[in-house]
Design brief:
- By secondary structure, the protein is mainly β.
- Bound molecules: zinc ion.
Amino acid sequence: MTLKCNCGSEEYITEANAYDIYQYDGDNFNFQRTERIDSEFKLYCRDCGVEITLPPESDNKNSTNSAVKI
Ligand SMILES: [Zn+2]
Protein backbone atom coordinates (compact mmCIF):
# COMPACT_ATOMS: atom_id res chain seq x y z
CA MET A 1 0.00 0.00 0.00
CA THR A 2 1.36 3.38 -0.94
CA LEU A 3 0.29 6.68 0.55
CA LYS A 4 1.45 8.67 -2.41
CA CYS A 5 -0.98 9.74 -5.06
CA ASN A 6 -0.85 7.90 -8.36
CA CYS A 7 -0.25 11.14 -10.23
CA GLY A 8 3.19 11.44 -8.62
CA SER A 9 2.60 14.75 -6.89
CA GLU A 10 5.09 15.75 -4.19
CA GLU A 11 2.67 18.13 -2.42
CA TYR A 12 -0.39 17.43 -0.32
CA ILE A 13 -2.81 19.89 1.20
CA THR A 14 -5.36 19.94 4.01
CA GLU A 15 -8.91 21.21 3.71
CA ALA A 16 -9.44 24.92 4.11
CA ASN A 17 -10.01 25.22 7.86
CA ALA A 18 -10.65 28.91 8.54
CA TYR A 19 -12.80 31.75 7.31
CA ASP A 20 -13.10 35.45 8.01
CA ILE A 21 -16.31 37.01 9.32
CA TYR A 22 -17.30 40.48 8.18
CA GLN A 23 -20.15 42.69 9.37
CA TYR A 24 -21.89 45.11 7.02
CA ASP A 25 -22.61 48.49 8.61
CA GLY A 26 -24.52 50.00 5.69
CA ASP A 27 -21.44 51.38 3.98
CA ASN A 28 -18.62 48.96 4.43
CA PHE A 29 -17.81 45.41 5.28
CA ASN A 30 -15.86 45.43 8.51
CA PHE A 31 -13.64 42.55 9.46
CA GLN A 32 -14.73 40.95 12.74
CA ARG A 33 -12.70 37.84 13.33
CA THR A 34 -11.36 34.64 11.88
CA GLU A 35 -13.05 31.40 12.85
CA ARG A 36 -11.46 28.03 12.47
CA ILE A 37 -13.31 24.94 11.36
CA ASP A 38 -12.39 22.03 13.58
CA SER A 39 -12.61 19.44 10.88
CA GLU A 40 -11.17 15.99 10.67
CA PHE A 41 -7.57 15.87 9.51
CA LYS A 42 -7.50 14.92 5.87
CA LEU A 43 -4.95 15.25 3.14
CA TYR A 44 -5.58 15.85 -0.50
CA CYS A 45 -3.25 15.68 -3.44
CA ARG A 46 -2.42 19.21 -4.47
CA ASP A 47 -2.17 18.35 -8.13
CA CYS A 48 -5.26 16.26 -8.78
CA GLY A 49 -7.34 16.70 -5.60
CA VAL A 50 -7.66 13.05 -4.70
CA GLU A 51 -8.12 12.39 -0.98
CA ILE A 52 -5.20 10.45 0.45
CA THR A 53 -6.28 7.54 2.62
CA LEU A 54 -4.28 7.58 5.83
CA PRO A 55 -3.41 4.44 7.75
CA PRO A 56 -5.65 3.64 10.80
CA GLU A 57 -2.92 4.38 13.36
CA SER A 58 -2.89 8.07 12.42
CA ASP A 59 -6.64 8.21 12.92
CA ASN A 60 -6.68 9.11 16.61
CA LYS A 61 -7.37 12.61 17.82
CA ASN A 62 -3.99 13.18 19.47
CA SER A 63 -2.12 12.83 16.23
CA THR A 64 -3.89 15.63 14.38
CA ASN A 65 -0.75 17.63 13.82
CA SER A 66 1.80 14.86 13.72
CA ALA A 67 3.82 14.20 10.63
CA VAL A 68 2.31 11.91 8.06
CA LYS A 69 4.52 9.38 6.36
CA ILE A 70 4.23 9.67 2.64
ZN1 LIG B 1 -2.61 13.35 -7.41
